[in-house]
Amino acid sequence: MKEDFVEDYEPTKADSYRKKVVLDGEEVQIDILDTAGQEDYAAIRDNYFRSGEGFLCVFSITEDDSFQATQEFREQILRVKNDEHIPFLLVGNKADLTERRKVSEEEAKNRAGQWGVPYVETSAKTRANVDKVFFDLMREIRSRKLEDNKNTNGKGKDPGKRKKPKCCIL
């Protein structure tokens, strides 16, 4: 969020951020809820899932346990959202630590393929693909909203009262 990598980062239980960004020439506000995967906060996480319009499921390529946990998170999200086609990306972080890799790119791509979602590797330290995953997800959210609006023929929407687009990313 702050484009600053903290070497001795201490993960939080849950955190939220709000930021305005320009997506394809249009200013959008994004709300990012970091659920940090803490089991103690499962009830709160369900509320986050309910309000989320799109999801980045991030694991460390250096920890197989975090990769295995993505399966359960995906199932929880689908259960809460009751929607198999929710905008979703599987993200392998710490791509700068290839010598410590425990999860192969092939294994991660296979899981993403089974889920029918994109897979991207990032590095918070070098910022490789960090913006990409957020912008890719925001584009998926926007596309989904346009599709939903087209399917309802725009009913219930007054085009003269256009609100600033927002994305809620978990």
UniProtKB/TrEMBL annotation:
Region entry Disordered, spans: 146-170
Protein EC: 3.6.5.2
Predominant place of localization: membrane
Biased composition (Basic and acidic residues): 146-159
Compositional bias segments (type: Basic residues): 160-170
Domain of life where this protein originates: Eukaryota
Entry-linked CDD domains: RalA_RalB
Keywords: Cell membrane, GTP-binding, Hydrolase, Lipoprotein, Membrane, Methylation, Nucleotide-binding, Prenylation
Gene Ontology MF, one: GTP binding
One record GO biological process: signal transduction
Membrane topology category: Lipid-anchor
Subcellular location: Cell membrane
Classification via Pfam families: Ras (PF00071)
InterPro entries on file: P-loop_NTPase (IPR027417), Small_GTP-bd (IPR005225), Small_GTPase (IPR001806), Small_GTPase_Ras-type (IPR020849)
Cellular component annotations (GO), alphabetically ordered: plasma membrane
Classification via Gene3D superfamilies: P-loop containing nucleotide triphosphate hydrolases
Record-stated family: Belongs to the small GTPase superfamily. Ras family.
NCBIfam families reported for this sequence: small_GTP
Name used for this protein in its record: small monomeric GTPase
